[in-house]
Design a protein that fits this description.
The chain has 499 residues and is α+β, with helices and mostly antiparallel strands. Helices cover 17% and strands 34% of the residues.
Length: 499
């Protein structure tokens, strides 16, 4: 599957991108698929996508490897399907492993996990794959988690108290337990992090990193490429402080597949680890076991970005410029290069392999709505309407001015009365509502059998265009079962419907 795409119908729009195209950017799709005025959170895995609507509904689509869509089955889907258990949960952090498994944290501090679980990376004490999101409860029920991060098959979580919990695959010590035995349930990472406050976490494929509130940075796990920044290539089974950065105040850490980026409070960027694609930004392809400051033309950086599935790096400047380096569609870019992007997310959407989001992406569209969109939104809305029709005991809220503009019948009627409620007896609620909605939208949405009644109304009110739309609807819906009924209607209302 070469296209990672997340889309919602009329209530959301589309956000997608294609591997290697460099053309389908979130900002472009916001303009072209109707996401104006809506906030969407999006996460794109390798061949799957999850997204959250402005109403906190959660949807998923894609190939569904290991049940990572959380839909309760293993079926792939190109149509978005709702993950009911997560709706209304207000997701604040999301991460995923390469199994894949997915872990989220909610605004209430709960953690849910699902997908691949061969190494207990879901934290439920088993190795059974999880087809639906399940609460991760062991040792976390009394905690509020604010951030989650996943490596290939392990997971770490950060609480409001600055504690780190870890579970899952541990062949290189990446869960920080002091051994290499897999950790089936969340366990606090203590050792030298005991009595310290962690403010930021990240995972490489087989390692973990943590930034403290005092600016210190610690790493543990796999280190054969020097990705822990300790000056050696030995694995670490418990957290170890990066001594080479003593006196430097780190505020953010990001991990690639086997390299690490760190941002200081002064806006400098340090990098270390694997460098076969130039992902350290040092101008060469030599691995670095110690942090090396990157030359970014002296402009202050405010964000660094990397993803544990790729060898790509990115950073954003205080003025909003985005730089990238490392693996770029199979090519090596050994020094930071200026891009035309406005966000680091676009770097990974267009150039990383695979093209995945490096964190939970928030997409904020503008507030602009066309006149047609505004009118459609206000149909049958009681908030600012000044007239209602009573049909079959039900109310339909409308605006007198719009009805006068759109229909000669209403112009004459409403000029003769100042009533704010009008009863209708000769037409059904379904038909009359469809008529009024047509005046707001220029479209009708009725099955052919119901369009017969609307055709009657269009004839009565001498609405020629509406009559033509009804004829077309009836014509498209002709079948053996309804042909006689529709023919009778065509004759009665003098409709030109070819049977």
């Amino acid at each position: 599957m070469n296209c990672n795409c997340a889309y919602k119908r009329e209530h959301t729009g589309v956000v997608c991108w294609t591997w290697g195209s460099g053309q389908c950017l979130p900002s472009f799709l916001l303009r072209n698929f109707g996401l104006s005025g809506r906030l969407v959170s999006l996460a794109v895995l390798q061949t799957e996508a999850l997204y959250v609507t402005v109403n906190d509904e959660v949807f998923a689509l894609g190939t569904n490897c290991s049940g990572c869509l959380g839909l309760g089955d293993l079926q792939s889907t190109i149509e978005p399907r709702r993950i009911d258990v997560l709706c209304g949960k207000k997701i604040v952090s999301l991460s995923y492993g390469t199994g894949p498994h997915v872990v989220i944290a909610t605004a209430d501090g709960e953690v849910f996990a699902w997908g691949h679980n061969g190494y207990s990376q879901l934290g439920n004490g088993t190795t059974n794959h999880g087809l639906t999101p399940a609460l991760v409860s062991t040792n976390l029920l009394s905690k509020r988690v604010t951030e989650v991060a996943c490596g290939s098959h392990h997971t770490i979580a950060l609480t409001t108290d600055g504690e780190v919990f870890a579970w899952g695959y541990n062949n290189s010590g990446q869960v920080g337990s002091g051994s290499t035995a897999n950790q089936p349930t969340p366990r606090r990472v203590s050792s030298c992090l005991q009595n310290k406050v962690v403010v930021n976490i990240a995972c490489g494929q087989l390692c973990s990193m943590a930034v403290l509130d005092n600016g210190e940075i610690y790493g543990w796990g796999y280190n054969c490429n020097g990705q822990l920044g300790l000056g050696n290539n030995g694995n670490q089974q418990t957290p170890c402080r990066i001594a080479a950065l003593q006196g430097v105040n780190i505020v953010q850490v990001a991990c690639g597949y086997a390299h690490t980026l760190a941002l200081t409070d002064e806006g400098f960027v340090y990098a270390w680890g694997a460098n076969s694609y130039g992902q350290l930004g040092t101008g060469n392809k030599s691995n670095q076991a110690l942090p090396t400051q990157i030359n970014t033309d002296k402009e202050r950086m405010v964000e660094v970005a990397a993803c544990h599935t790729s060898h790509t790096s990115a950073a954003k400047t205080q003025s909003g410029q985005v730089l990238m380096w490392g693996q770029c569609r199979g090519q090596a870019v050994a020094s930071p290069h200026l891009t035309h992007f406005s966000g680091t997310d676009d770097v990974f959407a267009c150039f990383a392999t695979p093209a995945v989001t490096w964190h939970l992406l928030s997409v904020d569209g503008d507030d602009y709505m066309t006149v047609a969109q505004s009118l459609k939104k206000e149909f049958d809305s009681p908030e600012i309407s000044d007239l209602k029709f009573l049909v079959d005991g039900k109310c339909i809220h409308v605006h007198k001015a719009l009805l006068k503009i759109r229909c000669e019948h209403f112009r004459a009627l409403l000029n003769e009365t100042d009533e704010d409620a009008i009863e209708i007896h000769q037409f059904s609620y379904l038909v009359y509502r469809a008529f009024l909605e047509y005046l707001y939208t220029d479209t009708i949405n009725l099955p052919p059998e119901d369009a017969i009644g609307l055709l009657d109304l269009a004839t009565f009110y001498r609405e020629t265009r509406l009559k033509r739309l009804c004829q077309e609807t009836i014509k498209r819906g002709i079948s053996e079962d309804n042909a006689i009924t529709l023919l009778s209607a065509a004759v009665k209302y003098e409709a030109r419907v070819s049977l």
